[in-house]
Structures are given as C-alpha cells and as structure tokens.
Amino acid sequence: MDLFHKFAVNCDVSGKYMDKERLGDLLRAIGENPDEETLDRLFFVADESGDGIIELDEFLRSSDLILGGSPASIILIVGGPGSGKGMLSKRLEEECGVVHLSSGDLLRDEVRRGTVLGNQVREIMEKGELVSSAVIVTLVRRIMRNHPGKRVLLDGFPRSLQNAEDLIELCGVPELALHLDCDDTILIERIIKRGDEEKGTRDDDNIHTALARLRTYHKYHHSTMEWLREQHIPVVNLDCSGTPENVWEQLSAIGRLMRPVARHT
User: Fold this and answer.
1) Which residues are within 8 A (CB) of 118 and not within 5 positions of it... i.e. 6 or more apart?
2) pLDDT digits over 78-90, tens only?
3) In the predicted model, what is the mean pLDDT of the chain?
4) What per-residue string of b and e applies to 197-236 under the rule 16 or more CB within 10 Å gives b?
5) Cross-strand bridge partners of residue 18
C-alpha cells in the first residue's frame, strides 16, 4: 500500500490512482525496465475496470503480476548493526539450503551499480537512516520471486513497523523470526573493528554512522517486536554477545530449521 501511495496521484472524485506512466515510474524505481509492450500488458491486466487508471484495490489484487511471482516461505533475522545477522545467515544458507537475502546488501548493490534506486538511497544509507519501506519491500519481493517454494532468510528486516506491515501485505506472513540481542557497546566495537578490517568495503562502518544506525534501530525495534508477537509469529531470542559458534549452538536446538525444506507440489 505504501508503494502505491508513493507513485499514485490524487483525484478529488475517486481518490488516489495510478496511470500507465506512474506504473512505469514505479517499476523503474525498483530496478525493473519493462519495454512498452510489457508495460502495456501489465497495465491492461491491472486496470480491471477498464477506465484507464489503476486504483488501490486493483493494484493490490494485481501485485503478484506487477511485482513478481508468489512469495517464498520467509524467516526473519532481526538484530542491531553488528549483531552477526550476516554470518548466521550465511551458515544457515550453507548448511540448511535456505536462500539468504540481506536488505542492506541488496541496497548497497543498487548503489554500487549506480541504478536509479541506488542514486536515490546512497545519501540516506551513508547517514545511517532508513530507506523507504516501500522501496525495500519491493526490492526484496523482486528477488524472492526467483526462489519459489524455498525458505528465504531476510537478514536485517523488518527494520520498522511500516516494513513489517508492507512485508505481510506483499509477501505473506513470515514463518519465524530469529532475534539476535546483545549490549550496544559490543555492537559498536564490532562495527568499528569491521570498518578497520574492511576499509573501502562499506561506507557505513564508522563510529558516527554506527551511532546513527543504533539510534535508528532502537527507535523502531520495540514496536517491530511487539508487532511480530501480535501477529503470532514465533520469535526465537538468541544471545549474540558471544562467538558466532555460540550463536549457532543455540540455534542448533531448533529442529524445524534443521530439517530439509519440504517440496511444494
């Protein structure tokens, strides 16, 4: 819904709507570059009433077609910057056959490639602030459609209540959430150490951005966790103050993640 409102225009009579030009702007903003024929086909299908505009209810019913195929099963990995989300995700990917998607890595890749989206979010990321929920959710959805029927780990997502609501609206209810938790001083030390060891790899690994990222994280974290509980999404709390191996040992007790993913028929 947030994505629709970002690109829709106002009409005094019928409220917000999207024409074909706006639909094209939306698709290009999330990294898609449809030719005129594809854009015409998408707009024709989404414009169910045939009145030359796409209203909100039509957009929602056509979101699978516009944004990609059916979403995969989702496991969220929530934690502050430096909590080890990426390391845990990579090990789960290697040992359990799941697909790892990092919202931060996806955005940094857009910046590196100099896409329209990357140019829009570069300054936001360098300041340690949150990128638009609509942009991140749609970017994640676009990648997820390549992995139907597989568990997908969303690393570092959702980062806000709006993220969470948009995720369910466009991708469905997550299966599980892993919550990596430890003291802020440990997180800051890890971020600074990572910045020293990987100079030039990430512009956001410095003390100033680390503090900004932590402030942003705490601003939204409590409401996001409360929302997950309200949605009855199982939350597994993991103490990440120790080594990555210690976190893995905590997780190894959860049998449902260790089983191979069931094939969908």
Assistant:
1) 107, 109, 110, 111, 112
2) 999 899 998 999 9
3) 81
4) eeeeebebbbeebbebbbebbeebbeebbebbeeeebeeb
5) 54
